[in-house]
Amino acid sequence: MWGARAVLAVSGKMAPRSAGSRDRPGDAHEAQEYDSTSRQAKVYLFTRPVDRSLPDSIEYHHWALVFVFQGDDVRTAEGFPDDSERLYPKYTKLFPEEEGSYYTLGSISTSPAAVLQKVRDNPCNGEKYTATWQNCQTWLRALTASLGDGVEGGLREFKTLREANPVVAAAGKKKSAKGFGSFSS
């Protein structure tokens, strides 16, 4: 369950992801989401520290949403910067491979196909990425807003880097992802 992953491309084409790699649009093929059966899903915030130099020794965390549907079907949604420094969505059918922490956000009734559509419709898709201002955390905030209070309410207790340290975030707003070091974890 935690091994090799199948990746569903949401924007562009992607190859299956191997441990330690970063998928980028244009790599291989695009799978489809065929599961449109609506059912209860527990939704978790997954966080992991990112090895990245930020001002004032701020620890930066990558965020993803993990949906565990009745029947133990899993979907993970997250935003990543592409090579052109734009945010793009990633939607997988397994738990994140990386070590990290899980926090329960809530429970909703939806289908994997409906989640994928919300991932595709995220207003942050295509926005210019910056490590401190428009990042995986702001992408995830936009996604949870589209899922309703059952999930969005649970995320309110977690602060994005922008919310936690607005002075540093605003200073980094104009810097690119490359201005803050490697994206690899």
Short description:
The protein is an alpha+beta fold.
Question: Any key phrases for this structure?
Answer:
185 residues; 6 strands; disordered N terminus
Task: Explain this structure.
It is built from five helices and six strands. It is α+β, with helices and mostly antiparallel strands and 185 residues long. The chain has one domain. It has a six-stranded antiparallel beta sheet with strand order 1-5-4-3-2-6. Helix 2 runs antiparallel to helix 3. The longest helix has 12 residues. The radius of gyration is 16 Å and the shape is globular. The two termini are 21 Å apart.
Write the layout of secondary structure elements.
Elements: E1 7-9, E2 39-50, E3 60-69, E4 74-81, E5 87-92, E6 101-110, H1 112-120, H2 136-147, H3 149-155, H4 161-164, H5 166-172
Antiparallel strand pairs: 1-5, 2-3, 2-6, 3-4, 4-5
* Helicity, as a percent range: 10-25%
Give the helices and strands as they follow along the chain. Answer: EEEEEEHHHHH
List the domain count as a whole number: 1
Q: What is the overall number of helices?
A: 5
Unreliable sequence segments: 1-31, 174-185
Biggest sheet record: 6 strands, antiparallel
Q: What is the count of β-strands?
A: 6
Mean pLDDT: 74
Secondary structure category: alpha+beta
- If strands are numbered along the chain, what order do they take across the biggest sheet? 1-5-4-3-2-6
How large a portion of the residues is in β-strands, by DSSP E? 25-35%
Backbone shape: globular
Distance between the termini: 21 Å
Radius of gyration: 16 Å
